[in-house]
Specification:
The protein is mostly helical and about 325 residues long. It is about 70% helix and about 0% strand. The protein folds into 2 domains: about 10-75, no CATH class; about 95-310, no CATH class.
Length: about 325
């Protein structure tokens, strides 16, 4: 009986794999068509939608998976976007003033008398030309809108347990940031410069795309910036997410992967300060939040594992049948 069922099961598994690959290829063709017609996804919501769409295709042809489960599982990411979008309105409703000068004072102290964004642009930003190295901060900055969600999708496709752990950290960190945005609206360096409180600063983090003539990336940046909360600067989630990812994967990564994990937050920090998108103090608080979230969740997970190890033998002992009593002499 088993010998007869095995080839049938194998045939079904092979058919599912073929159907899954056909579906993914068709999905890739659809994405290319979309890209040629409307360009690269310009909002984080669009990025999430495309990633979830790919997971839905996989789930539709995988045994034991349900499409509705994929959609439900990704609701927390949608809630993060909704909370972020309402953070500016919530701050206005509460009457929270936009802070502009405290961060200048703190960054001057960090920069030994000079605001780091001002120093970097005065020494490295050319008004006449764009250099090849500027592609690096441009690509690093843009990765904020793709990498955290691509990592989540990769974990979801391969290891649901780790995906849950990652999602807990992402949602916790995001809502800590959103609550701070509501209670403490905070102007970035370029805004202070536009008000005459700092020397002229350019939002130069997008200039690198001019060197390689990737207009779609530049337009994605410009359109994305038009819809964000402009005073959601403290903490910098641009800086917090890379460190969160580094801390999450650090213990299980090889040495070369750790080099990449360590470099990513540092490159992001440089890109944000050089591009006048964030002060150094914004980045430092983002890193503090990322470390705090990792420490808290790691302790919660460690305690849960200990409880399972203690409760497991106890449950087995209760469930085990009683040994027969020995006769009394």
């Amino acid at each position: 009986m088993v010998a007869e069922a095995t080839p049938v099961a194998a045939d079904r598994g092979g058919a599912r794999r073929v159907a899954r690959w056909v579906g993914l290829v068709g999905y890739a063709v659809l994405f290319v068509w979309w890209f040629r017609r409307w360009g690269f996804p310009k909002q984080r919501e669009e990025v999430i939608a495309w990633l979830v769409g790919a997971l839905v295709v996989v789930a539709a042809f995988a045994p034991g998976r349900r499409v509705w489960r994929v959609l439900v599982d990704w609701i927390p990411f949608t809630l993060v976007f909704i909370a972020y979008d309402y953070s500016r309105g919530a701050a206005d409703t509460l009457g929270m003033p936009v802070h502009v000068t405290p961060q200048i004072t703190m960054d001057r102290w960090i920069g030994l008398g000079t605001v780091p964004s001002v120093w970097l642009q005065q020494h490295f930003l050319s008004q006449r030309s764009v250099h090849l190295w500027q592609v690096v901060p441009s690509a690093t900055y843009l990765s904020h809108f793709v990498v955290p969600y691509a990592v989540a999708a990769w974990l979801y496709a391969g290891d649901r347990g780790r995906w849950i752990a990652y999602t807990k950290r992402f949602v916790s960190l995001s809502f800590l940031g959103v609550m701070t945005y509501i209670l403490l609206p905070w102007a970035p360096p370029w805004m202070a410069s536009s008000r005459g409180l700092l020397p002229p600063l350019e939002r130069s983090v997008n200039d690198g795309w001019l060197y390689v003539h990737l207009n779609f990336a530049r337009s994605a940046f410009n359109e994305g910036q038009a819809t964000v909360n402009l005073t959601a600067a403290l903490p910098s989630l641009h800086a917090a997410y890379p460190l969160m990812i580094a801390l999450f994967f650090w213990r299980t990564s090889r040495w070369w992967a750790r080099v990449v994990l360590a470099a990513y937050p540092l490159l992001m920090a440089f890109s944000l300060v050089f591009g006048a998108e964030h002060y150094v103090v914004d980045i430092l608080l983002g890193w503090v939040y990322a470390v705090l979230v990792e420490v808290v969740w790691r302790r919660v997970e460690r305690r849960r594992r200990r409880n399972l190890q203690v409760d497991g033998p106890a449950r087995e002992a209760v469930a085990a049948p009683l040994a027969p009593s020995e006769p009394v002499a």
